[in-house]
Amino acid sequence: QVQLEESGGGLVQAGGSLRLSCAASGRTFSSYAMGWFRQAPGKEREFVAAITRTGISTDYGDSVKGRFTISRDNAKNTVYLQMNSLKSEDTAVYYCVTSGWGRKTSDYTYWGQGTQVTVSS
Questions:
Q1: 109-119 tens-digit pLDDT
Q2: Distances in whole angstroms, Cα of residue 14 to Cα of each of 23, 48, 69, 113
Q3: What pairs with residue 13 in β-bridges?
């Protein structure tokens, strides 16, 4: 019912910034909360950030608080993840998610294919 497509990943040097985008199609974008997870090599999928349906409230994983900002533009059916002060440990595949709320992978129904973020040290 909902399709998600991430973009904006790439290679960045430690201390730099990157902005990820997730474009949604299918059911009305504004109907759902949105979020981001990531998975680094050898690690389990980790919660990054989430934003409510209206964009009023947000939640962040402990490892990214103060560095990452999630936002959304419902008119463009797009959610963003602004990543600042990037560290090598931020290297991971980042996944856009929707139709849920929480910090567990099982809290969400729809997942994008992921976009690779690589931070060089």
A1: 999 999 999 99
A2: 26, 18, 17, 25
A3: 120
